[in-house]
Hints:
Low-confidence stretches: none
Largest sheet: 6 strands, mixed
Number of domains: 2
Strand order of the largest sheet: 1-3-5-10-9-6
Shape: globular
Number of helices: 2
Order of helices and strands: EEEEEEEEEEHEEEEEEEHEEE
Helix content: under 10%
Number of strands: 20
Radius of gyration: 18 Å
Mean pLDDT: 95
Amino acid sequence: MIMAFRDNSVLISTAAAQDVAADNSDGIFNGADGANAFVIASGNVGDDTFLNFGSDDSIITGRQIFDGNNDGFIAFGPNGVLDVNRTGGGARRAGNDQLQVVGENGVDITEIRYLGTKGGNFAYADSATLRQLNTTFGADNVMEGDVSDDVIDMSDGAKVLLHDNGLGLNLGSDVVNGFGSDDLFVTTSKLFDRTGNDIVTFGGNDVLDTSGAEGPMSSDPSTGPGGQVDFTGIDGLAFLGETVGANGVTYYYYGTTDTTVDPFAG
């Protein structure tokens, strides 16, 4: 049975929104100091640069960015910039505006991943957060919930579900079926544990309210800034530990209370 969700229709929850105006000028924006959502206006925004773009930052557009092979990963051009208005392959369809995205280490980011759509907006973030888990657990075993309302089936073998709540976006009202003792739920912002015993219990509606970019906070169970997840058949998650990936992202691992998985083995 799908339990009642609250309204999760607002995309940006705990991230700081930075508006990139359609002023046809070359602007510089800074992603330092927490989660930032760079909101690209419709129209000619110019050739803009995002500095200190971290794993907790996102790009929000009013139309979907062209993805040549439709795999959810968008590689920048040979010149290292993103043609944000591209309509197809080839130089003639590159569009007017380009974005240069520079990471916190001063190295250019040249690939982002698609995080779905909500309320007419399209969300993107650094692909390295997902790629790291693909490397660790195998791409065929890793799934990700995006900003829309998803129904996710994890019944087919040991799976890993990424919930990138560190972005400060509301990841929607998700239903997860078949989450078993061999599966992992991985977040990028720690979940609030009201008892401090490493068991995260769900609300009275049997739904997990996830933390936002500033979590965990005691208000998370009543506000769920990262969205909500209905794990059918279970009423809590065990915290298994955390690790910092080679990409600098902190991952928080959760399983069932009778989990058979050691995410740090090997």
